[in-house]
Q: What sequence folds into this?
């Protein structure tokens, strides 16, 4: 066995095997139950294969994350993934390195998968509201109820979006609505470092501009799922790790920033906003699946290069 294979085998033993044992303990204590169509073993195998391919960013010299990141952070990121019942092979999340810390970050698909698992939701959908559409709803106990939306085909125009809403249909036909104005959606997008300083709207040709409808839907669905899960009375292990995933990523980002700036001198210069990298031009008649994939690619790219998805 070559030295490289020996090192990989040791890392796998200290991370994958340890996590597998921990998950087995949770199952034996009845603290963790997986859906019938989820295999933690297969998810771990997929994750391990991906981890061997993932590299750090430019600042760390594009080195293998398994060479740079601590074993504890690798094990914790795998545990967060498995406890939530997610699989990177299904685009439900991805691994991001911040300095020596590896984190697991849920994708849009992963957030919906966890929400369905925890709440038993039958469906999670979203729609865009265009100027001229008729939207009506009632407020009951501080919650939106009986939302109705009438849309004319001629109103569909990505340059005339007023907002978007998400609908989570629960067992017993209960329905949860989340509604966001376009200003609120742009406020969420503005958290992205790919959104320029003092920028008010989407830059022409950017992903937020080209796929505005899909990005708006993802933003409102993500907000709906997170708010709904955190309002749940269920204090399960899954919810703990759902929140821990976000917190771990934020902590790793802060620690990396502190480390990068610890020995730096503060220079007072005028800030120049770098031009964002342009997304490749997409054909205008591509099917919805391609739009979904393009938005997913953007979500992963943004998480790898900035502070995580902005929706």
A:
């Amino acid at each position: 066995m070559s030295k490289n294979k020996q090192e990989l085998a040791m890392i796998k033993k200290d991370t994958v095997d340890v996590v597998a044992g921990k998950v087995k303990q949770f199952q034996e204590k009845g603290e963790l139950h997986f859906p019938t169509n989820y295999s933690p073993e297969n998810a771990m195998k997929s994750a391990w294969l991906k981890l061997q391919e993932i590299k750090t960013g430019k600042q760390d010299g594009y080195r293998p994350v398994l060479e740079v990141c601590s074993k504890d952070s690798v094990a914790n990121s795998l545990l967060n993934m498995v406890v939530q019942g997610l699989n990177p092979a299904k685009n439900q999340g991805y691994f991001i390195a911040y300095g020596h810390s590896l984190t697991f970050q849920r994708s849009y698909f992963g957030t919906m998968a966890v929400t369905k698992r925890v709440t038993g939701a039958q469906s999670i959908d979203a729609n865009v509201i265009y100027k001229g559409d008729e939207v009506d709803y009632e407020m009951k106990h501080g919650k939106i109820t009986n939302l109705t939306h009438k849309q004319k085909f001629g109103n569909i125009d990505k340059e005339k979006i007023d907002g978007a809403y998400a609908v989570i249909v629960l067992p017993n036909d209960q329905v949860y609505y989340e509604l966001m104005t376009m200003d609120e959606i742009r406020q969420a997008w503005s958290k992205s470092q790919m959104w320029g300083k003092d920028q008010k709207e989407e830059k022409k040709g950017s992903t937020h501009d080209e796929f505005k409808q899909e990005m708006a839907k993802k933003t409102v669905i993500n907000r709906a799922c997170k708010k709904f899960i955190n309002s749940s009375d269920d204090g399960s292990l899954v919810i703990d790790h759902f929140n821990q995933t976000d917190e771990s990523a934020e902590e790793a980002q802060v620690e990396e920033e502190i480390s990068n700036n610890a020995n730096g001198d503060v220079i007072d210069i005028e800030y120049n906003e770098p031009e964002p990298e342009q997304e490749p031009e997409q054909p205008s008649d591509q099917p919805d699946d391609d739009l979904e994939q393009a938005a997913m690619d953007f979500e992963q790219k943004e998480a790898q290069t900035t502070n995580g998805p902005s929706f």
User: Anything to note?
Assistant: The longest helix spans residues 237-261.
